[in-house]
Amino acid sequence: MKKLENKVAVITGGAGSIGKITAGLFLEQGAKVLLVDLNEESLRDAVTELGTANVKYSAADVTKAEDVQRYVNDAVSAFGKIDIFFNNAGIEGVVKPTVDYPEDIFDKVIAVNVKGIWLGNKYVLPHMNDGGSIIMTSSVAGIAGSANVSAYIASKHAVVGMMRNLALEVGSRKIRVNTINPSPVDNRMMRSLEEGFAPGHAQAAKAELEKTIPLGRYAKPEEISQLVLFLASDDSQFITGTTQVIDGGMNA
After folding, report:
1. For the segment 29-79, what is each residue's pLDDT rounded down to a tens digit?
2. How far apart are the C-alpha atoms of 10 and 36, rounded to whole Å?
3. Domain segments of the chain as ranges
4. Nearest-5° Cα angle at 133, 127 to 138
5. Where are the alpha helices (DSSP H) in 114-187?
6. Is the pTM of this model over 0.90?
7. CA distance 82 to 18
8. Is 152 known to be catalytic?
9. Which residues make beta-bridge pairs with 179?
10. What span, in angstroms and rounded, lies between the C-alpha atoms of 129 and 110?
């Protein structure tokens, strides 16, 4: 039997690399999936690429309660229930020291990465089946510091705090709540951060970051999706309230 047979999953950040690849893996394992992202065209492309009637999309701004309520309602209307919530949407902000960090960008990062996660939990939970699983995307930036990315660091630490709080609130419903905490992943977000760390020399920044990882490379989005699948499936049925670090030894 497939690991997610007859399960329904909602994935925010669903048009990004981790979200879309995780959706493909969930579909292979028998789930029905609703993808959520801000850009409708990107969502349509993702659904076309995934190529099955078992995936649908809902364009939404995760920082707005009415949009979050709409994507939750879309999931329930399309598939009848929610068993898995991959609360994954996030943005990186800019690379600037605290004294130079633009306040408007700080506010935007906190809105997406903290409020967006919180709103998702708030409105998904009343519709989630008991025994379900919530996986929130934090980062190694949620367990350690790094210079010049204050908003991102603050937001990803906040995700860990929200996870611990929620795991205690919903344990009686046998709903599991965990974070994934990846090291740098080989995707668009890291291209942006590399350029921010070393303008005009992004490839050199990448090489320096890889030196901080004992396994000598960034994570692949596919590797992150395998961890998410584990946490979504019954293979992890006694795991809750944890930070699941996937970092190639970076924080060893």
Report:
1. 999 999 999 999 999 999 999 999 999 999 999 999 999 999 999 999 999
2. 7
3. 8-183+221-246, 186-218
4. 110
5. 116-124, 150-170
6. yes
7. 20
8. yes
9. 136, 243
10. 29
Which structure tokens are listed for 215? 């396994």
Of 57, 71, 123, 152, the active-site residue reads 152
Q: Does domain 8-183+221-246 have CATH number 3.10.20.600?
A: no
| Nearest residue to 60 (alpha-carbon basis) of 36, 76, 87 | 36
Give the pLDDT mean for 124-139: 98
pLDDT category at 118 given cuts 50, 70, 90 is very high
* Mean per-residue pLDDT over the chain, rounded: 96
Q: For residues 160 and 178, what is the distance between their CA atoms, to the nearest angstrom?
A: 8
Return the percentage of the chain with pLDDT > 70, whole number: 100
Bridge partners of 210? Answer: none
Residue 90 CB: number of other CB atoms within 10 A?
26
CA 62 to chain centre: 12
Q: Do the beta carbons of residue 83 and residue 8 sit within 8 Å?
A: yes
Q: How many CB atoms lie within 10 A of CB 165?
A: 14
Give the angle subtended at the CA of 83 by the CAs of 220 and 16, to the nearest 5°.
30
Residue 168: count other Cβ atoms within 10 Å of its Cβ. Answer: 12
Give the chain's radius of gyration (CA, Å). Answer: 17
Residue 162: name the closest of 147, 175, 178 by CA. 178
Q: Do residues 23 and 100 make contact, with C-beta atoms less than 8 angstroms apart?
A: no
Q: Which of 84, 82, 89, 81 is nearest to 119 (CA)?
A: 89
Residues 6 or more apart whose Cβ sits within 8 Å of residue 243: 138, 142, 143, 160, 163, 178, 179, 181
